[in-house]
Amino acid sequence: MARRLSYSARYAQSAEKLYQAQSIKQYWDDMMAGFQMISPHCEVDSFVSDETGIRVVLKQTIGRDQLPALAQTVMKKDMVITREETLGPFDPDNTKGTYNASIPAGPGSLNGWQELFPTENGGCTIRRTSEAKVFVPFVNGKLEQMILINLVDLFRAEAEYAKDWVDKNL
Length: 170
Fold this sequence. Notes:
Low-confidence stretches: none
CATH superfamily: START domain
Helix content: 25-40%
Strand order of the largest sheet: 1-7-6-5-4-3-2
Oligomer: single chain
Number of helices: 4
CATH topology: Alpha-D-Glucose-1,6-Bisphosphate, Chain A, domain 4
Largest sheet: 7 strands, antiparallel
Structural class: alpha+beta
Radius of gyration: 16 Å
Number of domains: 1
Distance between the termini: 43 Å
Number of strands: 7
CATH class: Alpha Beta
């Protein structure tokens, strides 16, 4: 049975400004450069921003020795994560998108939905709902919960990054 978790990041910047940042490849390149402090192999694999929206594919390698003990029981090699994010064309009321992550020979799946919408104070919120499913008997529930908790930590770090990047670059 899959587990779900929602996370909302609130920004002082407008939804249009945050969307504008994410529609610039340098935003993603800079984010991957920041991840290299934790994992030396991070890159933007592909990036498209046009009238249909934004689509970015990120690749990150995490050394097996950096994984929690529970994850090491399942992953016998370094973990290569491919993450794809999309946002549709900008909608000032609610821009919708998706994301997913895959690991070659990984024992599960991670999918999610995201919404970017304005808040009353002139800022905006990105709400992400993630669904993790692991196909390993006995440890599946613990691994799903661990994935979702680590994902929230990632989203928090990315929200701080986004705030800083927009302030410095737009």
